Amino acid sequence: MSRVLIAGCGDLGLELARRLVAEGHAVTGLRRSAQSMPEGVQTLLADVTQPQTLTEIVNIQPEILVYCVAASEHSDESYRLSYVEGLRNVLSVLNEASLQHVFFVSSTGVYGQETDEWLDEGSPAIATHFSGRRMLEAEALLDGYPSTILRFSGIYGPGRRRMLTLAQTPEQWPEKNGWTNRIHRDDGAAFISYLIQQRQNLQLDPLYVVTDHQPLPVHNLLRWLADEQGVDYAGREMPPVQGNKRLSNQRMLASGYQFIYLDYIAGYKSLLDAMD
């Protein structure tokens, strides 16, 4: 059993908290709002961007920090505060605690290159937007800490219906047919939990790309979702595949992790079945 602090209890953090409690860990969830937590999770009301609210962390003495904060808005300033300054503030407090490992949920947005080549952990992170640059800035703060960076592709799952909804309106489909990569929320949370469980037995890598088995062009995904929902897109031409990148999950697989949803078909079928 470990004492785990989850900084940022949105959708991913809450699912991770549920899994860790079920596995016998002592879990504290840090969040700004006094919303309900899963049973067995201690709540710490604090704001990572406000250092004076973080002093109680020392009393928890967490051995493991999972930093999975979400920015409040898609802006450079919000990303700087949430990911760079927020992580800096939490790490500063935890310098006084018995911290053994940090898991930082980053983003595959750090790979700004557009290519048909497969990208993995060894590929250069060439960030072309502020979001990717801020993530790389936050990742650099972990130099010198026992840490693992988790670069997530697009998270989908219960409550995340954007692509399902978009598939219902073919006239709104994007003109560009770029590659898309995704990870089901349950696999994202389960993989972090798996690494925490295996920390003593497995030599953790400092970096993992967290994504499923099958990248595909976005129009292929939308057509499949439209077919599954009985949406007519006749007359809608398939644009040539152009843009974005394909991401490899071979390091995830090499860790021994067993996927819940191997690809978009398994993952989205579970969402569509839940809607019936």
TrEMBL record:
Cited InterPro entries: Epimerase_deHydtase, NAD(P)-bd_dom_sf, NAD(P)-dependent_oxidoreduct
Pfam families cross-referenced by the UniProt entry: Epimerase
Q: Where is the NAD-dependent epimerase/dehydratase domain?
A: 5-165
Q: Which UniProt keywords apply?
A: Oxidoreductase
Look up the domain of life of the source: Bacteria
* CDD domains the record matches: SDR_a4
According to the UniProt entry, its GO molecular function terms are: 4-phosphoerythronate dehydrogenase activity
Enzyme kind, highest EC tier: oxidoreductase
The EC number of this protein is 1.1.1.290
UniProt key word Disulfide bond:
no
How is this protein named in the record?
SDR family oxidoreductase
